[in-house]
Design brief:
The protein is of the alpha+beta class. The protein has one domain. About 35% of the residues lie in helices and about 30% in strands. The chain contains two helices and eight strands; from the N terminus they run ββββββββαα. The strands form three sheets. A three-stranded antiparallel sheet has the order 2-1-8, with no helix packed on it. A three-stranded antiparallel sheet has the order 4-3-7, with no helix packed on it. The protein has a two-stranded antiparallel sheet with strand order 5-6. α1 (about 65-80) runs antiparallel to α2. It is flat, with a radius of gyration of 18 Å.
């Protein structure tokens, strides 16, 4: 995951930071590698480490996810909340089918 910070009222610099995945096991936190995808430890929770932050004030934060991170989140969500996952996946499958049909018509 990558985080992009932009000043809310005024922007002097854009700040780009990678989130380093952190494994939490036996009350210990162990960081992974910088380019590894973030992994979820529950349906709605993940740990990560961000280095080199020196921000103050208000910022707009853009979260940039990798596909592997979203798959891992969904895997954890399915395990923790299977009924909610079925509803979400059914709704998203319908939307994906409509988007694909629209894309094919415009091609």
């Amino acid at each position: 995951m990558k985080l992009h910070f932009r000043g809310w009222k005024r922007e002097v610099f854009e700040h780009h930071h990678s989130v380093i995945p952190v494994a939490h096991k036996n009350n210990m936190f162990t960081p992974g590698e910088t380019d590894d995808p973030l992994t979820c430890d529950s349906a709605l929770h993940a740990f990560g480490k961000v280095e080199g932050l020196g921000l103050s004030g208000a910022f707009l934060v853009q979260f940039e996810f990798e596909q592997d991170e979203l798959k891992d989140w969904l895997r954890q969500f399915v395990k923790a909340k299977p009924e909610a996952a079925i509803r979400l996946l059914s709704e998203m499958q319908g939307k994906a089918i409509l988007a694909l049909a629209k894309k094919q018509r415009s091609a």
